[in-house]
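Blackboard transcription, Thursday session:
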Amino acid sequence: MEAADVTASARRSAGRRLAGLFHGRPRLQVGALLAGPIGWLAIGYLGSLLVLLVTAFWSLGELSGEIEHTFTLDNFKTIVESPVYREIAGRTVAMAAAVTVADAILAFPIAFFMAKVASPRVKGLLVVAVLLPLWSGYLVKVYTWRTIMSGGGVLSWVGLGAPTDDLVRIWLVMTYLWLPYMIIPLYAGLERIPNSVLSASEDLGAGPGYTFRRVILPLVFPAMVAGSIFTFSLTLGDFITPLLVSKTQLIGNVVYSNFTTDLPLAAAFSIVPIIVMVLYLLIARRLGAFEHL
Amino acid sequence: MRLSRPTGILLRLGVGLTLLFIYIPLVVIGVYAFSSATTLEWPPPGFTLEWFSKAVENAGARDAVLTSVEVGLIATALALVLGTLASLAVARHRFFGRETISFLVILPIALPGIVTGIALNSTFSQVLGIPLSLLTVVVGHATFCIVVVYNNVIARLRRTSASFEEASADLGAHTWQTFRFVTLPNMRTALVAGALLAFALSFDEIIVTTFTIGAGQETLPIWFFNNFARPNNLPIVNVVALFVIVASMIPVYLAHRLTRDEEGAAGARGGGAIAGGDAAAEATAAP
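(Written on the board underneath:)
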């Protein structure tokens, strides 16, 4: 009993001493708070990205098939010189752009309705309705579209007929998958526009179309760019959708199908989406999108 | 805002169509789970609950659920600790490079999933020489889950003034006591919401998982991926699909309720959107 008390008080005083050590030493506090997260993200994660970059300059031994840790530009040469890889990279970026535009157009009416028209109760319900599918069953959704677009699937049943073109199929499914990622920032952006600004525009004689083009769109554009970061990045990195609903390949498929057999080549090809995303993020920051992330 | 009648009708029509677009596929998968057919016949010839018991009996699916739960719990725990520490540092202290922290936290989820996946894969296999296992999956998941916790907690910390903590210190509480009795109770629901979203994110993830999982191991999405094309398993796959949808919607719904009750519409106005998940508040990209 007494012994337990002694150890308990010893432990308490050790905790106190440590607390005393931190007291009035903000730098030490920051250091202690950040050691874990910085260790994990800056050393662990950024370190891994660095390894990825280095791996891209390695190669497979001709005979051994083992990875040789010597510097070579061969992988990049293969990617730049091969028309197949160039086409896949171009196709992927074009797909990302097409999906982004479609999502922006689809997201606007519902985001606007939620932010400016709906009653608080309806707004609450709509926010839940949009949030729920955001993270639920990404793979399941792709699978569902595969069945919907299959020969005897729902689309043929309702008489619409399923699209047969590979790129259209991927575009449709990805537009579906990433739509909530566009609606939510757009809704938050519209919510920030004071109603008085819209009324002022109306009072000064602007019609709805004019108000939309000259007032709403410029104000909400950064939020739209924020949403597009997700639609763009998600498209660049997806290999599941092309694999399940088409016979064509995007960047993700090349990386996925090579990473066990030719890791250096897969690493080199994955540099392409990194470059695209870094450029995209730089432009997005210039456009003020980071405030809306 | 006042809208003319035709504009209002068009807008509502647009909203209705968008909701149908979002939800019809989810309803379709729900219907397939009850279909008595063993093929993807539409409309289903009849309905049955048979596949649900078959799915529960399926050892592979059951193991995969347990694996996913295990990975999700450990990854969430790690993300909770790291995300909370980082948000405390950024919200309550000024230091060189503070702006960079948010960027660093968002990066794993702002970069495409294959990039994170193959970067971790190269590091484990080429540099560290660690064989891929569930542990490496946990490392990957924790990395992109940090942002969810971070965004939820930092949104809360920014809304509660640091003066409470200063008052506590002035009244003689030491660092731990202030944290235990002032800071922690303040951010409790934000922590729970962050944890729920982090778990949902991990439970649903497949792309990073593909690159970091050991041979022969299966999380639920990986099981699904390995089985969706096998005709024998088709009805069970449909049941699991419904299960995945429902199981990942529940944490998101709970997290939303938690943050909404406390912050009301302010959450939505707080800007930001996705990884804060809620509070309709801050950044991405699950896959």
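Lecturer's comment: Residues 60-269 of chain B form a domain with the MetI-like fold fold (CATH 1.10.3720.10).
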